Amino acid sequence: MSTAVAPTRPTRISLALRDSSTMLRRNLLHARRYPSLTLNLLLTPIMMLLLFVYVFGDTMSAGIGGGGPDRAEYIAYIVPGLLLMTIGSTVIGTAVSVSTDMTEGIIARFRTMAIHRGSVLVGHVVGSVLQSVMSVVLVGAVAVAIGFRSTDASALEWCAAFGLLVLFALALTWIAVGMGLVSPNAEAASNNAMPLILLPLISSAFVPVDALPGWLRPVAEYQPFTPAIETLRGLLLGSEIGHNGWLAVAWCLGLAVLGYFWSTSTFNREPK
To answer: Which residue intervals define the domain ABC transmembrane type-2 in the entry (predicted)?
Structure first.
């Protein structure tokens, strides 16, 4: 005589993973249906790459190297900074998307449904990191097309460079999510997240920190982009990394933790 087997109830972790994957699909579907925001943000680093290479490349390379103009050398110098700038540009779209969800009432609807509460934020974060990686690949492809080469990097250094890009994207995404949650509308979210694309302009992305005016050097030195750029540049080009590697990882972890607690505490706060 056979006995009926009671169906197993899904665990809390499996429910969280299921709901998070659903929210991830939702955000990727929105990005596919409305690509204009992502494309507009992605055009900024591509246009700056072409501008600095073909308009300022000879002059900037001569100024940095102290010798004759060498556009190929300057391409190699600025690409690591522009890859990280691409991440900062991409996550602005995340802040806008989160703010739109908050102000258009869909989050209030999600709060009434039997879904894991944190899955909404996880969907935004994972989707943003995936979009950042794809944007970096696209900008990297443009850089290779116009002459960038990384012949000195080993397979291990390529893996470390990819890991740094993903970790940096994760950290900036959590900060962008927090900015989106506290913004009253999408326009304010875009403005609040603008420093994520402006900070690379006052870092070592385009010129060495020593070449900056004296009053600007502390800003360039004590911010997250400069050590991350120097670390990525060292991994891709075989230059010295020094203490920048530990600083870059520390910045990424610190920003990720700060953004996570800021975002979750803001999101879990009951609306007034």
So the answer is: 36-270
